[in-house]
Amino acid sequence: MFKKLPRFPIFVAIAVTATSGQGMAQCFATSSIKIEEELAARLPEKIKSTGVLTIGSDTAYGPWEFLSEKDGQTPEGIDVDIANAIGKKLAVKVDCQTSAFEAILPAPGTKFDIGVSAFSVTTERMKEVN
Predict the structure, then answer these.
(1) How many other C-beta atoms can be found within 10 angstroms of the C-beta atom of residue 6?
(2) What pLDDT score does 127 carry?
C-alpha cells in the first residue's frame, strides 16, 4: 500500500518468470480468465466509471516490457501480459503507458492506477511502497 494514498487499493505486479529475448515473446491469451466480481466491485469509482486501468511501465526492458517490432508503439512482454490478465480479472480495459522506470512507483493514484515493470524490492522503493 502506498503511504501517500492509504485508502486507494494499489496493485504492483512483480514478475518473476524469465524468458529468452524479446523477439521470442508471445502474448498470453486472457480468454480463459474469469472475471472476479468481488475484486471488480472494490475498484475505485474512477476506474469503475471509465472501465480503464491505466498502467505505468518502462517499455524499454524486454522481454518484460517492450514496444512491438510491428509498429514500435504497442507495449508487449511478460509484464504487459500480467497487466492484461489483471484487467481481465477486474473486467476493465488496460491502457499500458510508457514511463521512465523511476517515475512509475511515485505515480500510482495520480498518473497511473498501477505500475507493472519488473520491480525488485529495494530500501529506496520501500520508502514509497510497502
Answers:
(1) 7
(2) 83
- Report the DSSP pairing between strands 75-76 and 65-67: antiparallel
How big is the chain by its Cα radius of gyration, in Å?
A: 14
- Whole-angstrom Cα distance, residue 32 to residue 26? 16
Q: What HEC string does the chain produce?
A: CECCCCCCCCCEECCCCCCCCHHHCCCCCCCCCCCCHHHHHCCCHHHHHHCEEEEEECCEECCCEEECCCCCCCEECHHHHHHHHHHHHHCCEEEEEECCHHHCCCCECCCECEEECCCCCCHHHHCCEC
Report residue 19's pLDDT band, with 50, 70 and 90 as the boundaries: very low
Contact indicator for 49, 93 with CB cutoff of 8 Å: no
Residue with cell 472476479: 36
pLDDT digits (tens, 9 = 90+) for 105-127: 888 888 999 999 988 889 988 88
pTM: 0.73
Burial class (CB in 10 A: 0-12, 13-18, 19+), 101: middle
